[in-house]
Amino acid sequence: MNIDFIYAHTTDSGITRINEALLVKDPCIPLLPLDFKYKNFVDNTHPNLPDSDFYVQSFLHVVTETVYQYPSTFISEKTWKPISSKRPFVIVGPIGSLKNLQNLGFKTFGDFWDESYDTIADPVLRMTEIVKIIENICGKTIDELQNICISMADILQYNSDLFLSEFKEKQIEKLKNEIILNLNR
Amino acid sequence: MILKKNVIKILKSHYKFDAIFDLLKYDLDFNLLKQQLLSLRKESYESNYRFIFLHYDTEYYITQNSPGLTLLNLQRLLSKLDIPNYFCLILTNQEIGQSLKTLAETESTDDVPISHIVSVLHPPTYNMSGTAEVALSPDKINSKYISLNGVPRTHRRLLVSILKNKNLLDKGIVSYNSKT
Q1: Tens digits of residue pLDDT in A133-175
Q2: Which of A156, A164, A182, B73 could form a disulfide with A86 if both were Cys (CB 3.0 to 4.6 A apart)?
Q3: Crossing angle of helices B97-107 and B69-80, rounded to 10°
Q4: d(CA A169, CA A106)
């Protein structure tokens, strides 16, 4: 019994995510070499813990999700880290990532900066808008950022509470409901 | 990927199934899945029997508008083995409804697409949602931003390239293509 399976590593395109290739084809600036490595800090705590020094010591979390130019949103543990660490974030991910989080009940930071990047389909333009937010944050002093953190405390606390307490139970309920719908279809 | 016991228990309370198949394992060879499904294939199934598949890793898209290769291979396999879509269920963290509908029309004679349930209750999320609350501690902030990019991917390369070009790398905590 022969079945014509198609595998990414054997297709003529030779690329797993062809849409991401658009970024390389038409980059807005010269790209760093493929083998470029960079790290400007010393490890001192486990990076997967929400109270890791990395996360708490940083104001804005620039979450580079698993995928970027992709036909579906994709939430991984990368997005949960700032939420559980009570820090604001931007998501370098597929269009609609923030909207998806909002649909799950989380609040984002549209009162503090322009989140319209989440609606921009063009991958390079979307990235450009995200970098504008990072630039703006980098133009502020640490004191100013600490004050902004205090002013967004309600959102940060709300998101943390939701994720750590109700979220899992809500998702379990959702799963049960969808199973029942599936069985009754 | 192995689902948490709690989630498996919920599935078991509603469905009958022999195995849960993580599609990531068959990325390079769907014939492995074929062998496993062949051994479980039956002439008929109880109404609540399901072949359950996990789809929590990235898909491979040749074009933005066509279904991903993992789902394409799965639908082709089910059709060839004569396993009805009705008795299959995919748990995923991605919106794949349209892809499954397209595949049912193009790769199957079934009236219905493979069912799917979008659930973010895969182990990384499940584990993190059980951690202890941290204090807000605004006074601990001493870095303007953080961006950790351990696994090199095109969008991460572009982001770090722009940050470097704008001399912003040292304003934050940044890694690229380096273990953190």
Answers
A1: 999 999 999 999 999 999 999 999 999 999 988 888 888 899 9
A2: A156
A3: 40
A4: 15
Enumerate the domain spans of chain B: 5-126, 138-176
Closest partner residue to A175 (CB to CB) among B10, B58, B159 is B10
The 3-state DSSP class for residue A151 equals helix
Q: pLDDT per residue over B121-148, tens digit each? A: 776 777 777 778 899 999 999 999 999 9
What is the maximum alpha-carbon separation in chain B?
66
Average pLDDT over residues B10-16: 95
Query: Which residues 49-88 on chain B approach chain A with CB closer than 8 angstroms?
Result: 58-65, 69, 72-73, 76-77, 80
Which A residues 3-22 touch B at CB under 8 Å? Answer: 3-9, 11, 13, 16-21
Q: What is the ipTM of this complex?
A: 0.89
Two structure tokens written together for B80: 């060839």
What are the structure tokens assigned to B58, written together? Answer: 């990235």
> In angstroms, rounded to a whole number, what is the distance separating the alpha carbons of residues A9 and B100?
22
Residues in Cβ contact with A143 at an 8 Å cutoff, skipping those fewer than 6 apart: none
Asked if A75's CB is within 8 angstroms of B62's CB, the reply is no
pLDDT at residue A15 in the model? 43
Using CA atoms of A69, A71, A72, A73 in order, give the dihedral in degrees to the nearest 10: 20
Cα–Cα distance for residue pair B85/B154, rounded to 1 Å: 35
d(CA B2, CA B11): 13
- Spell out the residues 6+ positions from residue B107 whose beta carbon is closer than 8 angstroms to its own: B72, B75, B76, B79
Give the strand pairing for B51-55 and B20-22: parallel
Could you tell me the residue ranges of all domains in chain A? Answer: 44-183
Q: Measured between CB atoms, does B106 come within 8 Å of chain A?
A: no
Taking the CA of residue B110 and the nearest CA in chain A, the distance in Å comes to 15
Residue A98's nearest CA partner among A21, A159, A169, A145 is A159
